[in-house]
Amino acid sequence: MCGIIGYAGKNEAAPIMLDSLRRLEYRGYDSAGLVVSRDKKLYLTKSAGYVQILADLTEEGAQMPGHVGLGHTRWATHGQPNDANAHPHISDGGTIAVVHNGIIENYRKLREFLTGKGFTFSSETDTEVAVNLIQYYYDRSHDILRAVADAARRMEGSYALGILCEDLPDTLIATKRESPLSIGAGDGENYITSDVAAIITRTRNIITLRDYEIAVLRADGVELYSGELDRLTRKAEVVDWDVAAAEKGGYPHFMLKEIMEQPESVRRSLSPRIRDGEIILDELEIPDDYLKSISKIYIAACGTADFAGVVMKYNLERIARVPTEVVFASEFRYNLPPIDETTLVICISQSGTTADTIAAMREAKKNGARVLSIVNVVGSVIAEESDWSLLTLAGPEISVASTKAYSTQLAVGYLVTLYFAKVRGTVTPDAYKTAVDALVRLPDAIEETLKLQETTQYLASRYFSSNDIYFIGRGLDYALSLEGDQKLKEISYIHSEAYAAGELKHGPIALIDAAVKTPVVAVATNKRLIDKMVSNAVEVKSRGASVLALVTDVTAETMRGVAEDLITVSDYEEAFLPSLAIIPLQLFAYYIALQRGCDIDKPRNLAKSVTVE
Ligand code: G6P
What we know:
Helices cover about 35% and strands about 25% of the residues. The protein contains 19 helices and 27 strands. The protein is globular. It has an 8-stranded antiparallel sheet, with helices on one face. A 7-stranded antiparallel sheet has the order 5-6-7-8-12-13-14, with helices on one face. 6-O-phosphono-alpha-D-glucopyranose binds near residues 349, 354, 357 and 606.
């Protein structure tokens, strides 16, 4: 999705902003641009295509001298990804420049209004409406802060805006509603960004801008105002992400690096919360009485976070005995199920800024439910607005295809499940102890599973030229199939689908084509269900499929002879086995995409964080 960077400091702005734009590339984009302010004039360069084109056009920024500027990577929403629609946009009067993330929903009405006032437009974007609206108010008040506040009041929808005014060459202004925007407070230089990963190598002191607030940045400081222009003070939070974590560190792709980081990320998410055999969730001040009163849990999330929610659902129902449903946040927000004060809504999100998940959280709260969030980004909207929040400690995840965030979501999900089970009295002391012991050993077991790298690479070489691949599983293995399928399709562009294995006979089995030996990945790690899975594998095999089975050293024997290929993880505590079994599925997708020559970290059409509906 779109990325914003803004700089106000003593150094040359353009080269610094180009560096940040390169760090934003992973989010997915189709055009990029820069504007700098110098000698009371604005200088603009923008282009469809990669940041490298912008870097070449400006000789790595050398052709754009100036100490204050804005940069943007655009993921097209309104209008084609071409030069004219790329950001920044300059107002008709030429005084104001703007970069924008989000969607201004009433832009047609505002465009009509501004056209009536004599403004002309050179792009199809809603952003040009924003910049001209600010210009309109600036022409009347000659006060840029007031103009931004007035324009913000008239805009509906979501926006994060970086604003330059040529009359104030040392000043950068920012405001936001719903779309994320953070301020980086440096030494003699200050930044705005929609994604902290873009500036983490330059400062760790981050102020998260809240809706309607306006920030004024100069080299020597940051001022914060409310939407009514009252002065505010807020201390910066220190983001303790490892700087190296936002760099590739010798790996060919962020995705592979992040797969390999999983033992450490899971350890960080689990170990501080397990003390002397007890799960201690200090951050969660949920009263026991409330926990006992919960009659229903909904998990609302998007994409991979949703699939982590499916694992959590199976565990919550089996271990904590709470009826749980997983609903895509985009569905939940507009089709609210009956909820009341005994309903807990769990929102899972890596970024904490996904538009649909934010909306689902707000709807849930408005209708009387309590919200627990599981989020990776400290200070993000979802972390801040939910009733209770638990951080996953994956560190920055750069690859669009989520891996270590998913693993930490699973890990925090296990903690929540066991904690709830203990308070609700649905787990015996012995079972609790066994489970906690298994959780303590989990990071090492994940590390061991990563040794499957070579085997998976070999299997990928056998299947990479397939046009269609299906995943089947039951229970937790079905939850894993959903994520294995998601990983494969998003980075390799192979058509793939995941099905609950029992549903095969009701439709999907028609897709098996003996002529091409359609590959079916049978996820069969669950001892209780292995006989059923073997039957399903036999069913597809006898219709001509080639079966690749993901098994454990316990279930392998039953599946041998049915599957052409086996990939074996160690058997583990049933509830936590997904944390091991997901590793070969991630590596399988990675190596298939590699063999197919795909742009693994930046898959086509996808965005890392989807901040618009
Ligand atoms: C995008 C990303 C996915 C991610 C989903 C939810 O689609 O490409 O990897 O799972 O958003 O994002 P969130 O930040 O809420 O976990």
